[in-house]
Design goal:
The protein is of the alpha/beta class. Helices cover about 35% and strands about 15% of the residues. It contains seven helices and six strands. A six-stranded parallel beta sheet has the order 3-2-1-4-5-6, sandwiched between helices. Helix 2 links the parallel strand 2 and strand 3. The radius of gyration is 16 Å and the shape is globular.
C-alpha cells in the first residue's frame, strides 16, 4: 500500500492544502493520504489556535475526499511533533511518501530537520512547487506537477481578520471558522 503523509499546523487549512493532497494522491497513485495536524512544532512557536480546533478544521477541509483521512496521532503524542516519529509509527502501514511544500522540503534536504536522514530513509519525498525550486532535481525527489501554491495559512488568517478570505478555504472550513469566531478582526476601542 502506498501512503502519503501530509503534515502541518493547518491554521487554517486552505484550498492550497487541498490541491496539494489531491495532486499527490492522483499523480503518485497513493492508496491513502494521512493528513497529520501537528501539536507542537519543534522549529517555531505553537499556534495560538488550540490543537483540537485545528484538527476539526482539517477534518472539515478533507471530509469526503476519497482516500484521505485526518489523524490525531501527533496531537495525542507527548512532546514535540517530530516527523520522524510519525513516520516510524506509520512504517508498518506501507510504502510512505512524505508530501511537503518546497520551503519545508528544502529545510529537510539541507539537513535542518530532526533526524533528516532517517526521515528520508523512512519515506519517499514529494514536493509541491512554491517559490524557489532549485535543488529538487534529484532522483529521490518527486516534484508534483501542479501550479505553485501561492496561498499560506498566515495570509488566510490576515485576510479573515480583515473580513475577506472566505474564498481561500472550503465552505465547510469557513462555516466552522465563522461559527467558532476564529481569526476575527481585533476590535478597535473607542
Amino acid at each position: 500500500m502506498r501512503v502519503g503523509v501530509f503534515g502541518g499546523e493547518f491554521d487554517p487549512p486552505h484550498l492550497g492544502h487541498l490541491a496539494v493532497v489531491r495532486t499527490a494522491r492522483d499523480q503518485l497513485a497513493l492508496d491513502r493520504v494521512i493528513v497529520v495536524p501537528t501539536a507542537r512544532p519543534p522549529h517555531r512557536e505553537s499556534s495560538s489556535t488550540p490543537a483540537d480546533t485545528r484538527f476539526r478544521l482539517a477534518d472539515a477541509a478533507f471530509a469526503g475526499e476519497p482516500g484521505v483521512e485526518v489523524s490525531r496521532m501527533e496531537l495525542d503524542r507527548d512532546g514535540p511533533s517530530y516527523t520522524v516519529d510519525t513516520l516510524r509509527a506509520l512504517e508498518p502501514v506501507g510504502e510512505l511518501v512524505l508530501v511537503l511544500g518546497a520551503d519545508q522540503a528544502s529545510q529537510l534536504l539541507s539537513g535542518r530537520w530532526h533526524e533528516s536522514q532517517e526521515v528520508l530513509r523512512l519515506a519517499g519525498l514529494a514536493v509541491a512547487p512554491r517559490g524557489d525550486m532549485d535543488g529538487f532535481d534529484r532522483p529521490d525527489v518527486t516534484v508534483l506537477r501542479m501550479d505553485p501554491v501561492d496561498v499560506s495559512s498566515t495570509g488566510v488568517r490576515a485576510a479573515l481578520r480583515a473580513g475577506r478570505g472566505s474564498d481561500e478555504v472550503s465552505a465547510a472550513v469557513f462555516e466552522l471558522i465563522r461559527a467558532e469566531g476564529l481569526y476575527r478582526q481585533t476590535p478597535v476601542l473607542p
